[in-house]
Amino acid sequence: MKSEVIASNPKVVGIAGGDASPASDPTVSVNQLLSNNTDNLNKDNKQLSLTNKRTSPQSSEKLPANCSLVVTYNRFKKHKSDNAKSYQSKIQASRSELSKQKFKKRMYISSSCSAQKIMVFDIRNSKIKSSETKPSHCKSWACPGCAPYNVLRVRRLIEQVALLNSLVYFFTFTLDPKKIPEEFKDNTHKYITSLFNKLILYLKRYFKFKTPLKYFWVIEYQKNGNAHMHGMWNQFVDVNKVREIWISIGGGKIMYLTKAENILKTARYVCKYLAKALDSGDSQFYYFQKRYSVSQNCIRPKSVTITTSVDSWKDLVYRSYPSIRDSLSELIDFEDKDPSFSFNFYEPRKETVKKIDPLKKET
Predict the structure, then answer these.
(1) Were both Cys, which of 37, 91, 145, 147 would link to 109 (CB 3.0–4.6 Å)?
(2) d(CA 157, CA 35)
(3) Nearest one of 191, 196, 188, 153 to 171, comparing CA atoms
């Protein structure tokens, strides 16, 4: 199975019991969620977030006959103890302390990284066409082994988001060092993101778009230590008006807004700043600060997650794909008599990226 399926990082929609979230609407089947009608995706997600969790599948439940299936063995969920609450409190305290520190990349790969395995299946007509066992990485930006993988994963997500939402306008926003408040001198990331949120609010009020304003952005730091922002959105707006608003709320005079010649190439160009930040050591980022963001109303690649902590879900998967039980024996600990799995169903990548770039020039 191709590695692109994992790297695409699509938005996950929980439909089962256990730790899956958000919960699913009982009237929406797995096949409906994996349908090719991307226009109804946002509507489906709103319905899912308003309903209760399902503890068992319906009798008529059907799993997709053609999909990319990623199976994770929930080894560590078996080791719950009385000290779980104290452990969680220690984690939260550690996070609060780290959030005040500048980001530093580790010099070594943690022993926990790649310790767990996953299996990737290519399902065609409810039969396993191919399978592959891969390490389950920690996906930490501080890990020298996973950071390049994260850049690739985010790049593929942004490529698909840009195409699915027709984000055809490229923008760059900068800061004026003289206008940055003292409390943000050492944290311009927080300042520029707050300014951008204000800009989006004012644009919606002023232009009153007929269709929702969708966007994504990536943060890059200049040599002087100030953050500036690159990204794309889907609406035509007067550049002079945007500049006027940006300067009035505290932004810099230097900004850029133009129509992209090619959506895919422009999205890749924006994503190169993620890799550039890693090469420079990320000395300006704080821990847990966002390197990129995608607006919530953007259509994203679809997937479905089933956490088989309930036997009825596990039996459904085994019935739908009879040969999968023997294949999963490679992941299970020998002493684990009641294994728990998470099954992630992804649309085949070809169906997602098949959308034609409306700005691509004919040859």
Answers:
(1) 145
(2) 19
(3) 196
d(CA 148, CA 153): 9
State pLDDT tens for residues 184-196. 998 999 999 999 9
Say if residue 334 is exposed, middle or buried (CB neighbours under 10 Å; 0-12, 13-18, 19+): exposed
Query: Do 172 and 192 form a contact (C-beta atoms < 8 A)?
Result: no
341-346 and 67-73 strand pairing:
antiparallel
| Tokens representing residue 302 in the block | 């679809």
Q: List the helix and strand counts (H, then E) for the chain.
A: 11, 10
Which numeric CATH code is attached to 150-294? 3.30.70.1910
Tell me where in the chain the CATH 3.30.70.1910 domain(s) lie. Answer: 150-294
* Cα dihedral sign, 134-62-78-80: positive
Are 23 and 52 in contact by the 8 Å Cβ rule? The answer is yes
- Name residues whose C-beta falls within 8 Å of residue 151's C-beta, 6 or more positions apart in sequence: 271, 274, 275, 278
According to DSSP, residue 68 is labeled: E
